[in-house]
Amino acid sequence: MILLFTDFGQSGPYLGQMRLSIERHAPGVPVVDLISDLPAFNARASAYLLAALNSEIPPGSVLLGVVDPGVGTDSRQAVVMRVADRWYVGPGNGLFSIVAQQHTPTQVWQITWRPSRLSDSFHGRDLFAPVAAMLARGDEVPGDPVDTASVGPQDWPDDLAEVIYLDGFGNAMTGMRASGLSERQELEVRGHRIRPARTFSEVAPGEGFWYANGCGLVEIAVNQGNAGEQFGLETGDSVVL
Amino acid sequence: MILLFTDFGQSGPYLGQMRLSIERHAPGVPVVDLISDLPAFNARASAYLLAALNSEIPPGSVLLGVVDPGVGTDSRQAVVMRVADRWYVGPGNGLFSIVAQQHTPTQVWQITWRPSRLSDSFHGRDLFAPVAAMLARGDEVPGDPVDTASVGPQDWPDDLAEVIYLDGFGNAMTGMRASGLSERQELEVRGHRIRPARTFSEVAPGEGFWYANGCGLVEIAVNQGNAGEQFGLETGDSVVL
Amino acid sequence: MILLFTDFGQSGPYLGQMRLSIERHAPGVPVVDLISDLPAFNARASAYLLAALNSEIPPGSVLLGVVDPGVGTDSRQAVVMRVADRWYVGPGNGLFSIVAQQHTPTQVWQITWRPSRLSDSFHGRDLFAPVAAMLARGDEVPGDPVDTASVGPQDWPDDLAEVIYLDGFGNAMTGMRASGLSERQELEVRGHRIRPARTFSEVAPGEGFWYANGCGLVEIAVNQGNAGEQFGLETGDSVVL
After folding, report:
1. Residue in C19, C40, C41 closest to B32 by CB
2. How far apart are CA A200 and CA A203, in angstroms?
3. Is B209 an interface residue toward C (CB < 8 Å)?
């Protein structure tokens, strides 16, 4: 199984083109969109979300990640990472850094395979999708072993005290694991004081709170409301303990 | 086959997490998004849309419905319903009430199975998806038989004279089956008089009308226009005969 | 494999209903959304995008196209087209015209099969999806051979000097193949002069340019910006060489 983890958005032919490229190289392999609206070009924020979702990725499957701050980036940055029984294929821009930090030993390869036709702007379709397909069908890694540092920055914190993702309901995920916070910890974001609650129904309608969300991250929400709008939140906003 | 019927929206990892949960419990079972932008937290409106789509659900398949007005709701509300050759898994908040009203005898179970880890906020992934997977692979219902009333309110009308869904083009579905209305019946919504037509091309561009839509419901539309914007429609608006 | 190529948008039950209709007629056949937000009701613009994506369609598969300017259109317009090893099913309104112009010989049939129940407004589900399913499972074409002109207008230019699609990032695809332009060709759109570049990183942040996009079309973009907003672009805008 191949999981797509991208910032492509729902519109356009891009996800469809990725799927056709996978189908051409590994017919019949199932493909699931894990998420397609990661914060655009933001590999760092996306890295924390990936780490939070990591335990839900089925062992044996391939995570195909594309969040590319510089479209047309040097294709030598393309990497394959192996952690436990899972494969990761994508750019070496840090997208896989937090998973790598949390799980050692990790193996990393630089992708050396090149397609007969490599477009300047769509490495997801031309390079990453075929390599993900090769791994899904059990081929050797088409690349050379490299140092773990090749996945990108090594100095990102274990937990990121920032808003990393705003969902369609205005709930704001942060890059902090809830397990690291006291259940009575108060937060501050954009000058608003945010108290903890176990879940939505514990606070009054219209009231903000934070809770441990379904993937274990600290998430800021408003019962029956839109936290993003109510507090003016954006990806990258600092969260103060 | 499992059909997802949710108000999750297209964004975020939620639909992807549901699919991974299903794959873990029933590898290889096909999954289709029937709809993912049901009116948020509105089980009543969604119940009428489900009833209208019911005949299109393939016999033998499992409808996994999640429209949850109170996230963090009591998990004892989780039900399985069987109607003819189809399964329904979801909350006992009325989402399945209209299907149940239209089709008897109906069997209902309260779900007693619990996962080793049940999050407070994502019962769709943790409870409903695994149970749908069990049914799709032919397991026994993991629950106890209960009264049909366990699916939720029993006093909702057979047809709902309200706007229940606005689609991306601004067409407004109502909860009324077109088969119950005269072909010459005029409607009124938000003070606008709406005349009947067989289809879009029968009225002038920019003109509003109602017609029997593709799933048999009364739908208010504007030829080459956006009825939702033109008439200021919202989910819940009353329709007067 | 069946590819969906529609202007339905992501919302609503429409894509899901198409998939259920396909599943009913060809159980187990894989279905991929190639694109679902084609410019609404615009068969001409969509025809150029289809031609640009054509080489990515796997041989042996069926392209199911629905872009219908007149919902409730005469169902006698329904066609099947065969080009090389690929099938196309949809309306004879020009959606397949540019593919037909670029690839001869082409065979065309008028669909004569009718379902037991044909709604006035959803031929995609009731007529086109079942026919696509028949072809995917290897049945005979359920129709009569007709002249190639039955796919629609024969007088559309080989390249269309217009904006044909704006993606979610504001990049504006045109109907012109980049292979037909000099690499130094400047363009003008809405009074803005647009210079060529090989890719995003070749121009300064905030600067507009055109480049050969991933499917070979001339695309107008802004590095780290939104060309659609910056230049006020809309589908149909003329591009001047």
Report:
1. C19
2. 6
3. no
Q: Rounded to whole angstroms, how far apart are CA atoms C169 and B45?
A: 33
**Locate tokens 């999981």: which residue?**
A3
Each residue of A148-192: pLDDT tens digit? 999 999 999 999 999 999 999 999 999 999 999 998 999 999 999
Q: Nearest-CA distance from C123 to chain B in Å?
A: 9
How would you classify residue A163: left for phi > 0, otherwise alpha for psi between -120 and 50, otherwise beta?
beta
Please tell me which chains touch C, using 3 or more CB pairs under 8 Å as the contact test. Answer: A, B
What angle do helix axes B129-136 and B14-25 make, rounded to 10 degrees? 40
Q: From CA A139, how far away is CA A43, in angstroms rounded? A: 27
pLDDT in tens, B19-58: 999 999 999 999 999 999 999 989 999 999 999 999 999 9
> Token pair for residue A70?
């510089």
- A109 DSSP β-pair partners: A80, A145
Q: Closest Cα to residue A191, out of A232, A159, A234? A: A232
C200 at interface of A, judged by CB pairs closer than 8 A: yes
CA distances from C86 to A114, C45, C47, C106, C107 (A): 27, 21, 16, 10, 11
Q: How far apart, in whole angstroms, are the C-alpha atoms of residue B108 and residue B88? A: 9
Produce one character per residue of B12-44: b if its CB has 16 or more CB atoms within 10 Å, e if not: bbbbbbbbbbbbebbeebbbbbbbbbbbbbbbb
CB contact under 8 A, C9 and B49: no
Q: Does pTM top 0.90 for this prediction?
A: yes
* CA distances from residue A115 to A8, A131, A157, A194, B163 in whole angstroms, order as listed: 22, 10, 36, 50, 52
Which residues of chain B have a CB within 8 Å of the CB of A199?
Answer: 71-72, 120-121
* For testing contact with chain B, the best of A50, A200, A217, A235 (most B CBs within 10 A): A200
Q: Does A199 touch chain B (CB under 8 A)?
A: yes
Which residue among C10, C34, C212 sits closest to A16, beta carbon to beta carbon? Answer: C34
- To the nearest whole Å, the CA of B216 is away from the closest chain C CA by 9
Cα B233 to Cα B6, B52, B200, B238: the distances in Å are 22, 21, 19, 10
- Sheet of B106-111, strands arranged across: B31-35, B2-6, B62-66, B86-91, B78-83, B106-111, B143-146
> Which strands form C86-91's sheet, in the order they lie side by side?
C31-35, C2-6, C62-66, C86-91, C78-83, C106-111, C143-146
C18/C7 Cα distance (integer angstroms): 13
Asked if C10 reaches chain B (Cβ–Cβ under 8 Å), the answer is: yes
8 Å CB contact between C183 and C56: no
Size of interface B-C (CB pairs under 8 A): 74
Contact A198 B72 (CB under 8 A): yes
Asked whether the beta carbons of residue C199 and residue A10 sit closer than 8 angstroms, the reply is no
Q: Which of A7, A55, A67, A167 to mutate to test the interface with B (most CBs of B within 10 A)?
A: A167
